[in-house]
């Protein structure tokens, strides 16, 4: 077969089909979420499963799932396989717990923030947002899981 397999996509084609910019596709690849092969001219070529994987990644990211968690789940897929409907349902169920936890932390932070909004001190040693009262160790934000 020629250097370009019949069912392979260039990064531009994958971007066009998925609606995800090439910069984001390169980012996904650097993060290990997506794989490509390189041509002798060092151009990326994606297999037929890439469109489904990008859809899975995009939906997951839009739901607020951290990249690392997406990578772990995609790591279960056999090489060259696209996520199936059943795969997505199982992953979404798993991530519901994570998202519920994030929501709880955000609600707690919102309550504390309400007090801070009328205080204004931003003192590291006194500000409630910087203490463990939010359920987070001091120095960590409520959105560190992203
Ligand atoms: S700003 Fe004063 S406690 Fe947070």
UniProtKB/TrEMBL annotation:
HTH merR-type domain segment(s): 8-76
Origin: domain of life: Bacteria
PROSITE patterns, per the entry: HTH_MERR_2
Matching Pfam families: MerR_1
BP GO terms, sorted: response to oxidative stress
Alphabetical keyword list: 2Fe-2S, DNA-binding, Iron, Iron-sulfur, Metal-binding
InterPro entries according to UniProt: DNA-bd_dom_put_sf, MerR-type_HTH_dom, MerR_fam, Redox-sen_tscrpt-act_SoxR
PANTHER family, alphabetized: REDOX-CYCLING DRUG-SENSING TRANSCRIPTIONAL ACTIVATOR SOXR, REDOX-SENSITIVE TRANSCRIPTIONAL ACTIVATOR SOXR
UniProt-recorded name of the protein: MerR family transcriptional regulator
Classification lineage: Bacteria, Bacillati, Actinomycetota, Actinomycetes, Streptosporangiales
């Amino acid at each position: 077969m020629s250097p370009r397999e019949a069912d392979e996509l260039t990064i531009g084609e994958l971007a066009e089909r998925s609606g995800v910019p090439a910069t984001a596709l390169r980012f996904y690849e650097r993060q290990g979420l997506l794989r490509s092969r390189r041509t002798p001219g060092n151009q990326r070529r994606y297999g037929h499963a890439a469109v489904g994987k990008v859809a899975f990644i995009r939906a997951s990211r839009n739901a607020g799932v951290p990249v690392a968690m997406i990578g772990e789940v995609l790591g279960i897929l056999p090489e060259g396989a696209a996520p199936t409907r059943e795969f997505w349902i199982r992953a979404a169920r798993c991530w519901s717990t994570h998202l519920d936890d994030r929501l709880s932390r955000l609600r707690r932070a919102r309550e504390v923030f309400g007090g801070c909004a009328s205080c204004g001190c931003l003192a590291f040693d006194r500000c409630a947002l910087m203490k463990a009262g939010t359920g987070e160790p001091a120095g960590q934000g409520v959105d560190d899981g992203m």
